[in-house]
Amino acid sequence: MLEQYSDFQILYLDIETTSAYPSYFDMPERIRLLWDKKAKQINYKGDLKPMELFNRSGIYSEFGKIVCISVGYVVPNSLNLRIKSFYGHHEKNLLLGFAQLLNKYFYSAKHLLCAHNGKEFDFPYIARRMLVHGLKLPALLNTAGKKPWEIRHIDTLELWKFGDYKHYTSLDLLTAIFDIPSPKADINGSQVNEVYWKDKDVQRIAEYCQNDVIALAQLLNRYRGMDLVPEDRIEYAPLVEIE
Hints:
This protein has about 240 residues and is an alpha/beta fold. The protein contains 7 helices and 6 strands; from the N terminus they run βαββαβαβααααβ.
C-alpha cells in the first residue's frame, strides 16, 4: 500500500514539547489545581505528588507547549530531503509559520503528514495548540467530520503494530533494528524540558528534533523497501529562531 505514495506527497514531522511554565509553582492557581487533578489520574500507584510529576506536564497539550516543529520533504528538482524547523519561545508564531508552510505547499487531498506516534501525539497536539491560540487549522490537520480513510496521516508506529494495539515501539528502537543511524546522539525526549527551561537552549532542541525527522523519513523508506537517503542528499534550511 505504501508504494502508491510519491515522495513529493509526504511531509515528515516531529514536535518537541515542554511544560508551559518553568515550575509547578509558576502555574496560575486555576491551572495548578487542574494539574493536581490530572496528576492523580496519571499517578496510578499514588506514590508521587503533583509537583513531582510536573516534568510530565509537557506531554499534555492542556498543560504544555510546543517549542519546535521540524519537518522534512523531498525537493522536486534536486530530490534532496530538505529539513526545516520552526522553533522558539513564542508558540503562536512558530505555529503560524508551520501553518503557512502547510497552506502553501501541503494543502491538497493528495498530500500526507507522517510522524511516529503522530495520530496519538504530534497531530492532535499541534491542532489543539493552534485552537488555543485562535488559529485556523490547515486542511491536513482539520479532521472534524472526516471518515478514517479521508484523513491523510501516516503513522510509522501504527504501521509497525500491524493491528497489535498493545504494542509500542520507539523510533529509536526501530532505527536500531533497521540499521538506521540513531536520532538520539545528543539528548533524548526526557531531557527536553530541562534543556529548554534551565539551559535556555532551544536551538539544541531544534537540532535534536531534526534528527528525529531524518530518522522518520529513513524508517518509512525501509517500510517501503527503498534505500536510505544518503547524507549528501540531506539539506538543511538555516536554523533561525522565530521571534
